[in-house]
């Protein structure tokens, strides 16, 4: 795989996810089709199954947003009841898998937490909690406290 191909892959993945989102929003049952799942599996491999396992265990995710939804975070429960928070549509997670598989080894496009969050957004399975700007900043800070804890 060339550097050019690797740099384009995230935009292609986002395009696929956006197409799935458009299709889901046009349907009455708001479901991802088997064809969509096959497409996602061809992109994400085993990460998709791990993301679906999270969704099955926690069918609704919490989104924290400031006034007018100018800033948002999605909270995903992980193993051992640890919470991960990710920014919608941004490929970054403080989990160890993201650090090792995505950033260091470059063997995955993303982690299960980001994919699970994106799928839940597509399906409309998030519950919003309004927070103040200061509360939002504390939530963001806690993301990086977790990252420091993982590195310690």
Automatic annotation (TrEMBL):
Residues 84-122 form the SWIM-type domain. Keywords: Metal-binding, Zinc, Zinc-finger. GO terms for biological process: double-strand break repair via homologous recombination. It comes from the Eukaryota. The keyword Nuclease does not apply. GO terms for cellular component: Shu complex. One of its GO terms (molecular function) is zinc ion binding. This is Zinc finger SWIM domain-containing protein 7-like.
